[in-house]
Each structure stands twice: as C-alpha cells, then as structure tokens.
Amino acid sequence: MTIDWSWIGDHTDDLTSLTVSHLQAALSAVFFGLLISLPLAVVAHRVRPLRGFLLGLSNVLFTIPSIAIFVLLLPISGLTRTTTVIGLTVYTLVVLLRNTVEGLDSVPTKTKEAAKAMGTRPLRTLLTVELPLALPVIMAGVRIATVMSISLVSVATYIGDGGLGQLFTDGFQRDFPTPVIVGVVLTLLLAVVADALLVGLQYVLTPWKRRRA
Amino acid sequence: MIQFDAIHKRFPNGTTAVHDLSLEIPEGGVTVLVGSSGCGKTTTLRMVNRMVEPTSGTIRVGGKDVTRQDAAELRRSIGYVIQQAGLFPHRTVLDNIATVPLLLGHGRRRARARAAELLETVGLTAESGRRYPHQLSGGQQQRVGVARALAADPPVLLMDEPFGAVDPVVRTQLQDELLRLQKELNKTIVFVTHDVDEAVRLGDRIAIFRTGGHLVQCAAPAELLARPADDFVADFLGAERGLKLLSLKTLADVPQGPAPEGGAWTLVLDEARKPLHWAPKDTKDAEIPLRPLADGDSLLAALDESIASPTGLIARVDADGVLTGVSSRDDIHEHAGRAHTAARTRTGTEPETETAA
Questions:
Q1: Taking CB atoms and an 8 Å cutoff, what residues of chain A touch B80?
Q2: What is the CATH number of the domain that holds B315?
Q3: Domain total of chain B
Q4: Residues A117-130: pLDDT tens digits?
Q5: What pTM was estimated for this model as a whole?
Q6: Which candidate in B35, B84, B246, B332 could, as Cys together with B39 as Cys, close a disulfide (CB 3.0–4.6 Å)?
Q7: Per-residue CA distances from B334 to A75, A101, B248 (Å)
Q8: Same domain, B7 and B74
Q9: Where does this protein chiefly localize (chain A) (predicted)?
Q10: B213 and B117 in a common domain
Q11: How high is the pLDDT of residue B353?
C-alpha cells in the first residue's frame, strides 16, 4: 500500500474544502446539540421526574444506527447538509445532555444557597453561578461530542455529504488507497486539534481551576 | 428592629422547627440565638431573610412585613454570613465581596472599590483580593464572608454559626474582630451558635431555644447566667455558670495596692517598670512566670492568675504594660462574690427577661 504523493499535491484545493466542510458539519452538530441540551438539562436538573425521561430518550436516540437516521430524515430534509447536521446533532445529545445535567448537579448546594441569600434571582444564579461551576463537566461532554462528531461526519457520505468521508468512497471505488489514507489522517488531525483547542478554551474559561502559588 | 410575632414553622415532614415565637430584637447590638441542634435557631434566623417561610405569624424588619417585600430585594438589604463562608469558588475574593453591590446595580468599578475597602476593614491584605477562595485559609475565608455580608452596608446582619468550622485560636481572633467591627459599625446582628461560651462572649442579649422550637429565655448574658429561667437553661449554660459570669465582669473596680517588698517572693520589673516574673528570696527556687492584667481583663482571668501566683497577688498594668499595683486573691474573691449577688438581686440597670409563652 503506497501513497501517491503527487495525487495529494494535485488535490490540495479539494482536500482543503473537504476538511473545512467536514469540520463545519461536526461543529454545527455540537453547536446545535448544546443549544438543545442546555435548556433540556436545566429542566432535567430542576424537575426530577423529567430527568429520567429526558436522559432515557437521549440514550434511545443514540442507539438508532446512524445510517438509519439519515434514511429516516431523507423524506424531511433530503440530500442536504441539513440532514447531516440533524443526524449528527441527535448523537451529540446523549453526552451533552448527560454531562450538562451532571455538571449542574455537581454545583454545591451551599453555593446556590449563598447566591440566593445574597439576593440573586434564579435566572441570574443559573447564568452566573451554576453554569460557570458546571463548566468543567459540560466541557468534558463537549470534547467527547466534538471528537465523536468529527469521526461520524464520514457516515453522511451515503447521502452525498460526509466531508472527508467522500475520500473513502472515492478510494474504495477506484481501488486507490491514497485518498483513504489521506482521509483517515486528516480526520484524526482534525479531532486532535479540535480537542486541544477545547482544552485551551476550558483553561481560559475557568481561571479559578488553575493552580497558582 | 426585627419583630417575630407568633411565628410557627412546621416542615412538610411534620417536624415543628419553631413553636409560637414572639421576640423583639432591638436596633443595634448582638442578639445570639443559642440552643442544641434541632432547636429551631437556624430556622428562626433564616426566616428573617425569607430563606425559610414561616407557616404562620409575621416577621417585621424595620417595621415592614418581610413577606410583603420582594424576596430577592429583601435579601440584598440584609447581610448574611453563612456557615463555612459559602463563598463562590469561581469568583475572586474581591468579586465575592462585590456580589451585592453588583446586584444592586452599582457598577463593577464602584462595587470593586467598595470591596477593596472592606478587605481592609476585615483585616485582609489588598493582595488577597485577587485570589480565589480555595487559596485562602478557613479563617480568611470567613473574613471574606463577613466582608461580603457588609458590602452593601445593610443595617441588619444575620450570622449562621459563622465561626463553627475554624480552630479555637482562629475562632477567638474572629470573635475579637467581630466585636471590634461591631463597635465601629453598630449593626443589628443576629448570631446563631450552639456554643455557650461564644454566645456569652459576643451577645448583648442571648435567646435560648429548646428542642421543638421553643424560646425559653431571652436576656443579657449576666442576667441569664445569674438567673436562668429554669433547669433547662441552667443545664444548658453548664456547671461553670458562675465562672462564666465572672468572664463578663472586669477587673477595673478591684482595689489595688503597692507591690509587697521583703517577702518570700518579689515582683521583678524591667527598666520600663513592666512586670517580668516573681522571684523567690531563696535563690534555689525557680522564678515563677506571671501574666500582667489590665483593667479591661475579666475577673475570671484575674481569679485564674491569682491562683497561679505564689503570693496570691496579681500584677496590674496600664495600657502600656507599666505596673500600676497589685491586687490580692481576697480582693478579687470579694468582688466576684459581690458581682454574683448583684446579678441575683436585680440591682442597678437590669434588662428585662422575656420568657416564651
């Protein structure tokens, strides 16, 4: 199995646009996943009876095979980027929802009591006390969801999207390994870089967690 | 300043936390709520800023029914020091203190300036303002808790076992600081503790609660120690009630005379006439250390020192530590006895005792 380096040189523009498209699909999924998970997690955290239901639902959605999700979505959104993003978003929910709920649960009662006793109203307490303190646990979920989405985007090749995944189809069809290898390497690189950036973001967002002399 | 009127609190699980409480807390001064756990003292405190709502009855702060006010606004107008400080771990010390001014819309710059001022008030360095709570010791965190409660300059301060989690040495320091602050600020402080000594030390008035949420007696510490309303109060105050009473009386009125000369023991002074120790006439005996006492020290400390002294005498000093004279064990005893009799027979200006219905 040899790599045809000249192929890479000839296709840098394609590779760049596929990488960008790949990343865009994955990040959109995480973004919408967070948008949906945050309010649901707040509800699950505050309304105990709904908690099991919501977490259970996100688990059930996670067990649907990814190809099946795309097929199910076809009649609704067709062969579009929208289908890809919806499909991926569904998968991020299981980690994002669970981690956000656990993050909110991890905020000490004493701290919430203090906020209340100082005269902070519930919404402000949520935004300025509970969510910041839940951030490390939420960020752990975001990291998993991001890496997972980056690896899952390729599945959307079946509906004509799939970012770097298109390189796999291309390589398999022509029995030409170079695009496959390049696709795998670029996907891995994307995942590693995205994860590192998220670690950096978390460091910036949680100054109180840093050790200082 | 704070009026409890026929307050009952029953929790959903059926326990009665507070039973028919009527109590008036006057403006200024420290009122300590004391009692064993489950006696309703913390619940009583938390009803003032509506962290707990009473089942029936009314509470007024500054004449206004608390339940008629917006709960969040009410809480901003009342300082609250929570057990083990309860600081926000993700905010710097300065921002912790600035919490209430920020909620009141004072703006970040002004709120932080006020917070910096308070750091100094509670005896912390400006540098510690940039730290996070977990980087401070327990005692320092507690000071931040007090500063945070004082930030919006509320007339009323609620303190819920604030010094319960620190070691005895630090606790004494924090108590001293609180007394010093209170002299300066003269707030209406309601202080909850289960420690009788702390109550006697800090309280201008002490309210004793019994399990089941009954207020048993509310009176000045001296009054309480001399005339406990019943056996429960007497038991709660402990066997050394008499000694605790002496801790409230100062040495000021005990007569003093010149230091004796030519006896078995001589009081040795340094060149500034500050007492050093007792030296024996027979040089084979070791010299005995002493603790000089000033007028502000308690009769209890004087009694203790007179027992330790080989001559039964205590060395009295002025504010600079210079010897003013000595007092004998008998003089101290006599004064202690008189203090007790006075307290028992209600002479002088005595605050009235309130007993729960």
A1: 117-118
A2: 3.10.580
A3: 2
A4: 999 999 999 999 99
A5: 0.81
A6: B35
A7: 101, 68, 16
A8: yes
A9: membrane
A10: yes
A11: 52
